[in-house]
TrEMBL record:
Needed cofactors: FAD
Pfam family, one: BBE
Protein name listed in UniProt: FAD-binding oxidoreductase
Gene Ontology molecular function, alphabetical: FAD binding; oxidoreductase activity
Alphabetical list of Gene3D superfamilies matching this protein: 3.30.465.10, 3.40.462.20, Uridine Diphospho-n-acetylenolpyruvylglucosamine Reductase, domain 2
Family indicated by similarity: Belongs to the oxygen-dependent FAD-linked oxidoreductase family.
Record's keyword terms, sorted: FAD, Flavoprotein, Oxidoreductase
Native source organism of the sequence: Frankia nepalensis
Domain FAD-binding PCMH-type: 40-210
Amino acid sequence: MTTTVHRELPHALRRHFRGAVLQPGEEGYDEARRVWNGAIDRHPALIARCAGADDVQAAVRFAREHDLPVAVRGGGHSVLGYGVCDGGVVIDLSHLKAVSVDPAGRVARAAGGLTWAEFDLATGRHGLATTGGSVSSTGIGGVTLGGGFGHLMRRHGLTVDNLRAADLVTADGERLRVDAATEPELLWGLRGGGGNFGVVTAFEYDLHPVGPVVLGGPIFWPLEQATQVLRFLREFAPTAPDELGVAVVAMLAPPMPFLPPERYGTPVLGLLPVWCGDLAEGAAALAPLRAVGRPVGDLVRPVPYRAVQSLLDLSASPGNGSYWRSHRLPDLSDAAIDIVVDLVASITSPLSLLNGWMIGGAVSRVAPDATAVGPREPGFELRVIANWRPGDADHERHLSWAREGWARLRPHGAGQYATFLSDEGPAGVQAAYGDRLGRLTALKDRFDPSNVFRLNPNIPTSQDLSAIRNLPTSKEVTR
């Protein structure tokens, strides 16, 4: 694309656009092209900061007319930086912040640019919530469309299990209301199929009474006790009450005031239990977990749900380089536990960690084919996450730690979840969707046969499905 065409493009789009259109060299452009992962450095031809669904329509039609790649940005938290592209159009939803809550009907309608912090603030005023992302700056769009793991999922299901409806702009630039009455099959696909079928400008969710105070907080053990704790968690998980969510965080101990200073920078295993229910019952349910071994820090206490939702924010600070690989583990076998302990002991960056979830409860009572997400059986999800500061010359070593750790855990895994895919490419998409892939491909053929929305864990069209194993994987994040 020539410089002359570059200069002409914004004027053509602005004629049908209410929001701001940014191009290289303009004030605000460099800030607008940055995403959460500091390893991503891309330069779109245009950034279309949408003021409403009509702007999204105009941007989609404009990109198609000029044969430009399309990236869709909500919160910008994709580990591969899907929310920005080189030489294309970024459809930026981050200014779409409207949210309305019906307390009596326990329903929320939220614009596609909201973060979970903003969503939880609006619903929390009424003592309501839905399962949402555990890093508060994450956008609701990516989490929802990928499935949606969070502290409430064992009691209230995944985010997609609470998705009632969506407003969608298709690859043709048309607007659709997607719900069980109008487009039941497309709603099924949006519940876990990612951004493959269009741009969601608004979501409608079922809400549940939550808190506003829950019982939760991190517990940390020294690495020498990690095997004991993980074996206990393995035995504890199958009978754990639905009210209890548990996240796993294994890392080098951060300099937090509730930890002994001599532990700072040493390997620790952390569990983050969150009890959503009667606090007295929660204290009794958590007592066995808190009694395991000799924790070096225990911050479990009554705390506002919104505070719990930001407890993992420091592990995902914006601007750092980041890369991960994930597995679904049907069980924490002794061999898998040994690998986890070894990985924590060999962390190469003070910012890296292992993070995951205990799965079960309401999540596992949903039929496997009820949504595009799977599998649903009880077990664990675990990510090996390499993080590094900008300019870290050892970033290749951090990447190798994550990739080699993932490879070591692979014999103990049973598939992946699309929401946590990285650069596994088509093989990862197959592993995530399994026998649901054909059904998703039929939706792709119907709503995006030209694969306009391809910057995501991409669902192939039927034309590409037979060649899926031969497509390359992305390595750009390793720069």
